[in-house]
Each structure stands twice: as C-alpha cells, then as structure tokens.
Amino acid sequence: MENAIYSSMLSANQLLEKQTIISNNIANASTTGFKEKFFYTLQTLDAKNLYNNSYNKIVKEYYNLSPGTLHHTERNLDIFIKDNAWLTVKDINGQEAYTKNGHLKINAQNKLTVQDNEVILQYGNIKIPNNVNLKILSDGIITSIEKKKNKIFNTQIGKLKLTYLPEKNIIQKDNGLFYLKINNQLNKYSSNINHNIRLQSGMLEESNVNPSKNMIEMISNARQFDMQMKMISICDQNSERANQLMDINN
C-alpha cells in the first residue's frame, strides 16, 4: 500500500515539474529567439536500499534548437544568426552567455545590448558614436554610416562575437540566456571565434514554441495528475478500511 502511494506521489511531482516547463514554453511563445524546452525525470530503485524503497532520481532537460519563423523587420539592428550559431553577450554578473535573440538596441551608455545584456565583440569594447546609422554585415562586422558634405562614409567600428556551441553541453538559466555546462569548455569557447558564421540583418527569428502542441501536453499532464491523486485517495481509503477490519477482529 505504501509503495503504491509513494509511486503515485513521485509521478505527481514529476507531472508538476513538467507543467512548469510547459507553462514557461507557452508564456514565451512570442519571445524573440526563444527555444522550446523539454523535461523528463527517471526514477530508478536504489539496489543498495531495496528495503527502504529508496529511489535514484535522474533529471534531464533538453531543447528544441530548430529555427523559429523568420520575421522581416527592415530594421538595421535586427539580426538573424543562421544555422546553429549564437550571439555572445555578457549577463548582469559579467559572465559570457549566448542567445538567439537578435533584437539589438543601443543603451544610454552607447553600448549594443540584447534585453539589457551587453553584446560582446571580438576585440575590446566600443561605444557607438552619436548621430550615426549602423549597419551589420553578413559576417557580423558593424559599420557606421555618416553623411558629410553630400558624401557617404562607411567606417568599421567593431565585429560581433559569434560562435557555434555543442548542443549537448548547453543549459538555459532563468534569465533566458544559454550557458555552457562545463567550465573548461566555457574557457575554450570564450576564445573560439568562427569566421564562417553568417547572419542576416533586417530579420528576427521568432520563438519555435508550438502553442497547440504544448497546450495538448498540458491537458494530458493535468489528467494524469488527477489520476495519480485519485490513486492516492483510493489507497488511503483502502488503508482506513483495513484498519477498521483489524479493529473489529480485535
């Protein structure tokens, strides 16, 4: 009886964790560059503690990294990073992170940012000159466009840091940014610059979340959760009846 209740409680907790992931997917269905997240938990009986009903819990998170729908914006500071390449940014703690969100902005300090995270360049840091138009070329080079005396001047002022990441070693944190799991790989990729990565300006990659699919899965999980709760209730009722019978016999 206790085993059945314990198993149902484990399943119910797993379903609640899945619902949290699905809810986050649905909430970010319109977030630029957001990648759909999946989750599963594996419970295995601990062979060393069979009599104590001890279980080993393995939690696995993985991501759908397929591209989302492309949206033409015609804005020079909107970029789509092609293939499985990523834009490198600095989070609020100064740590290197990665994103597919290419909606770049210039902050009050004349720095390029994505969702208030400073964009990292290949070499050094730059401040965007005032009163200039920016253009980002397909290889990530940032140029300023100025008109002086009826002449157009293009000046290279920096280059975006773009990189490929090993899909098996990335993890997304609560801030929506992706990170590499292993520190030594983080250091390795921090200096790894790939000159073959291409991007396209005037376009944004939308979220790849399928709202209908996630809603169906959410409903299915809710029904399974109800079943587990009913199972616990039935086991509890059976336990009470068994106790009553024991009292009668005594």
Rg from alpha-carbon coordinates: 26 Å
Helix segment count? 3
Main beta-sheet strand count, sense and barrel state:
6 strands, antiparallel
Instruction: Name the helicity range.
Output: 25-40%
What's the shape?
elongated
GO biological process, one term: bacterial-type flagellum-dependent swarming motility
Keywords: Bacterial flagellum, Cell projection, Cilium, Flagellum
InterPro entries: Flag_bb_rod_N (IPR001444), Flagellar_FlgE/F/G (IPR020013), Flg_bb/hook_C_dom (IPR010930), FlgE/F/G-like (IPR037925), LlgE_F_G-like_D1 (IPR053967)
Subcellular location: Bacterial flagellum basal body
What does the model show?
Strand 10 and strand 11 form a beta hairpin. This protein is elongated. The chain has helices at residues 2-27, 183-190, 211-249, and strands at residues 36-45, 55-64, 70-72, 79-81, 85-90, 96-99, 105-106, 112-114, 117-119, 133-136, 141-148, 151-159, 162-164, 170-172, 178-180, 199-201, 203-205. It has 250 residues and is α+β, with helices and mostly antiparallel strands. It folds into two domains: 2-66 and 209-243; 70-205, no CATH class. The strands form six sheets. Strands 5, 6, 7, 8, 9 and 13 form a six-stranded antiparallel sheet that branches. Strands 10-11-12 form a three-stranded antiparallel sheet, with no helix packed on it.
